[in-house]
Write a structure and sequence with these properties.
Elements lengths: L1 E12 L2 E12 L3 E5 L6 H8 L7 E6 L2 E2 L8 E4 L11 H11 L4 H14 L15 H13 L5 E5 L7 H16 L3 E5 L3 H7 L2 E6 L2 E7 H7 L4 E7 L10 E9 L2 E8 L5 H11 L2 E6 L4 H11 L2
Parallel strand pairs: 3-8, 3-9, 6-7, 7-8
Antiparallel strand pairs: 1-2, 1-4, 4-5, 9-10, 11-13, 11-14, 12-13
Length: 302
């Protein structure tokens, strides 16, 4: 069941079409990747969802009903360009944002104590935002985004400015939020993060949807009929009209071979040929990464 849907969203600025009948359907309790090169229309769609601007045509549905301005309270938005007040103290600011989202002061304090302790930022409560590094500021804004436990969370490049340790920390928190029932739209250029986090994706390019579906099904759809096979011992798999050996390495009494099979062969055909050549230790279809698919799809349109 979809928690959020955007149906045929079109938006034009002057003579520039920013979105051309773009649709997404975000399943409940999932992480949905919104992908695309710079200028594709991702930020415009996110701004429309957050009621910052309106579409020229199309429909937005949240939890089965048309999205209204009041529904913004049910959305948590972490923009790529952070928006904390530099001169304001961290704790005061977090409390202020929490109350703007409808929490009482007592409930806001209870939740803030929980998150500040969880992210190990308790000591920052009395510091001014300008005293914090960019990564530290992002932790604070992450807390203010999730604090009111919104139905829909939108993270736009949430790992920008984080070192690997803190990026991994926030990644785990995003997964934790999904486990607790949050529905998340995740916009990023980092395709490795897409493979780690996202259940489904939509790829937008030049204002149009050009690829959508589950990450697993897309990777299988774009597979090039290549296989990684590990044999026991030094095994030679002869090339033929059906196979092309792309690489081979021999190490620790094992042979690792990547081959490309002719399109007429299915997985079982390839596995039978491998077994006939030697003792198979492992056998896996070689699936392209989301980064490879992203580049191939976008370059094909340019």
């Amino acid at each position: 069941m979809a928690l959020f849907e955007a149906k045929n969203i079109t938006k034009q600025f002057g003579t520039t079409i920013a979105l051309d009948k773009v649709s997404i359907s975000v399943p409940e309790k999932s992480i949905y990747g919104l992908l695309g090169p710079n200028g594709a229309g991702k930020t415009t769609l996110i701004r429309i969802i957050n009621q910052i601007t309106g579409p020229d045509s199309g429909e937005l549905i949240l939890n089965g009903k048309k999205l209204t301005a009041e529904d913004v309270l049910a959305i948590g938005y972490l923009p790529e360009e952070r928006g904390l007040y530099k001169k304001m103290k961290v704790g005061e600011q977090a409390l202020y944002f929490a109350q703007l989202k409808g929490l009482s002061k007592a409930e806001a304090m209870r939740r803030l104590k929980y998150w500040f302790k969880k992210l190990d930022i308790v000591d920052w409560w009395g510091k001014k935002v300008e005293e914090l590094s960019k990564g530290m500021q992002q932790k604070v804004q992450f807390v203010t985004t999730v604090l009111h436990e919104p139905k829909l969370l939108i993270f736009d490049e949430p790992f920008t400015g984080f070192d690997p340790v803190n990026a991994n920390l926030i990644k785990n928190e995003i997964l934790f939020l999904r486990e607790r029932g949050a529905t998340i739209i995740f916009s990023t250029h980092n395709m490795a993060s897409v493979e780690e986090l996202c259940d489904n994706i939509t790829l937008i390019d030049k204002a149009k949807t050009i690829l959508e579906g589950s990450v697993d099904s897309i990777r299988r759809q774009w597979a090039a009929n290549e296989y990684d096979i590990v044999f026991e011992g030094d095994v030679t798999l002869a090339e033929s009209g059906n196979f092309t050996i792309m690489s081979k390495t021999t190490e620790d009494h094992h042979s690792a071979i990547r081959l490309k099979a002719a399109g007429v062969l299915d997985t079982n055909d390839v596995l039978r040929a491998a077994i006939a050549s030697g003792k198979v230790v492992s056998f896996n279809p070689s699936l392209p990464s989301m980064n490879e698919i992203f580049i191939r799809v976008v370059e094909a349109r340019n």
